[in-house]
């Protein structure tokens, strides 16, 4: 199912690259809602986005990265976008939105077919991509991204671009990211109430990787870990593109909850203590350094105290669990590449010791990354917690290197020239063979 098949109206824009101009991105996280508005600037290296408007406030109506209260979420989105519009001095009618990886899943697909003429053309490549996407259809799921990982000519080595090459058979390896229909219907409902059109939906770890990773890391291979409030997600990049993604339902808010229980203190106090004193690393002075701990309401006004080592003994096991869950999910088929660098981003990744702990558990070097490639970002919104929304802006400005599956025209009921009712995999493949030969 495509986004067009799901919504079937002009609220969904086709997946074409943004022309230089104004674009808006929205990150609906569990702890904060962020809207960036950018304007593209032409440089010698191509268009570069400049942030001209920012809206940022605590999240309402969201839980686990999905909408839990429609009315609260609508109000939250409306206020956040209006703040960004006021700062930018422009009104926006379309937004591209991040979708948490806990609601998205990626899967690889390979499809091979003979070539009518010995020289491979772009038409051959496009038809093979469309046939692979048609074969991948899943009930009650929507395709968010269809990304070509590699091509194979006559069963030989993988190539990045087979155009102009000669061969008898062409195969495509694709990574397709999908989402359940329900969360997207709720999302569209909220946006329509705010008089906003949905331009695109981007899986959050994919967006974070576009902003936090360097070009070399994307090409040579890196595992991007986006640590949010209630979800920690991972995206593996290799050979210049997204290769896989996964998520664990654990985040920074779980660390705060553990501290609140372990120290017998309110959640707000536990969050403050975590930010000021928390660490996943041990220090010789931890047993001697005492931390003041406010009591739970109703237990009197007397301030409690606890050694810093107690904080760390609560924080470290939760972070270890988080990284071990992701490691096991990524290594479920023995495909965890030990040569890939680990890159941490997201607000929860700023906890001291998180980078060192990730490096130990994954067995390779790790670094903490903030978004780059954008200008005009103030200090308050340039940290790791804003990688997702920054990545959406970069994707819209530069254009996405994806095999898009959607109508070329918003009012057309056809997908790349094929009737929606005839987009089944077998018919697509046989029609291609018939046209080719």
TrEMBL record:
Keywords: Cell cycle, Cell division, Cell membrane, Membrane. CDD domains: ASKHA_NBD_FtsA (cd24048). It holds the Pfam family SHS2_FTSA. It is found in: Cell membrane. SMART domains: FtsA. GO terms for biological process: cell division. It is a peripheral membrane protein. PANTHER family: CELL DIVISION PROTEIN FTSA, CELL DIVISION PROTEIN FTSA-RELATED. Self-interacts. Interacts with FtsZ. NCBIfam families: ftsA (TIGR01174). Belongs to the FtsA/MreB family. Cell division protein that is involved in the assembly of the Z ring. May serve as a membrane anchor for the Z ring. HAMAP family: FtsA (MF_02033). This is Cell division protein FtsA. The lineage of its organism: Bacteria, Pseudomonadati, Pseudomonadota, Alphaproteobacteria, Maricaulales.
